[in-house]
Amino acid sequence: MNDSNQKLKIPETLIKTILDIARPLKYSSPSNLFYSGQTPIVAYLLLNGLVHFTKNGKVVGTFTRGSVIGLKELMTNSPISVDAQILPGTEVCFIDRSTILGILKESGQTPLKEFVQNLLNVDTTPNFT
């Protein structure tokens, strides 16, 4: 990921809204969320803990509470170019495509709808220089 990491963070006020529509899951051991070249089937909202993006075994990005990962790739059916390793004790919400489409179809402009629309326009192209 590039310097847009902060743009990928959902405001604290919207985390509760997501928790009302998506169930959290806590990982007790390290695990891979996805691998380079994989097209995500869900987006991830980090509630607690850490996720490392790696490329060729090297950490190239770290994400914390409030980070939304894989949303743009999910909605554009695009492969991710990094591996994502979730660390023990990390809690995430899985947000599927139908939930995101439901948010985008809401009438009027809600804060969550506006955030998702803006997030879909963020450049998430990794920069590994």
TrEMBL record:
<dbReference type="InterPro" id="IPR014710">
    <property type="entry name" value="RmlC-like_jellyroll"/>
</dbReference>
<dbReference type="Pfam" id="PF00027">
    <property type="entry name" value="cNMP_binding"/>
</dbReference>
<protein>
    <recommendedName>
        <fullName>Cyclic nucleotide-binding domain-containing protein</fullName>
    </recommendedName>
</protein>
<dbReference type="InterPro" id="IPR000595">
    <property type="entry name" value="cNMP-bd_dom"/>
</dbReference>
<dbReference type="InterPro" id="IPR018490">
    <property type="entry name" value="cNMP-bd_dom_sf"/>
</dbReference>
<feature type="domain" description="Cyclic nucleotide-binding">
    <location>
        <begin position="10"/>
        <end position="104"/>
    </location>
</feature>
